[in-house]
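Team,

Forwarding the record for the chain on the shared tracking sheet. I've put the sequence and predicted structure together so nobody has to dig through attachments.
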Amino acid sequence: MADKAHYGIQASANLLNDWIVAEGWKNIWLIAHDIGGGVAQGLLVANEAAFEKATLSNSITADTWPVPAMQGLIDAASAEQFEMAAEAGAIGGELGPFIRSTFMNKHQITDEILEAVFLDSKLSHEVGRAEFANLLRSLTNEDTKANMEALKKVELPVNLIWAMKDPHQSWEGPGSILSNTFKNISVQQIENAGHFLQIDAEEEYLKLLLG
């Protein structure tokens, strides 16, 4: 079973913060996406002083997640069924088409990218399956909901780069929530991109990120 002291959203943020403090790093540009965006929000709550600015893209927040497909994986892991189903090939058969469905520019999600970025050892190796199942069992929106009041006090600049064709972490949901939560906020939108905008609209994303 997952130990949320190691795998949860805020626990992950705290672990990263311990590393940052141990290394003495400052003036960090925090860039995060999706579930990583929830971890980033936890980092800002834990140690805002370590960061110069933050960029969040199509991030979870508050109670906008887990989305139904992810909740299904969480339920399978909680029922101790994920690893067996993944080994049998049942998870990959559903997860692959689900990931492809989040892309607007379908040519960007090649079989090689799907395997290397999204599936790989999570499904194909025994240790990877066990670790991913532990992660799934730890995922809950309790931490992201708990952080919302503290996020209103964050002073550093936060930029949202948001894909507007995201069927799961939409602008109307988490995008709007975050834009109305942070004090020092700027927003840039990519109209023709789905959830994984770093691949779906790579050039436009990088132009906005680095511009």
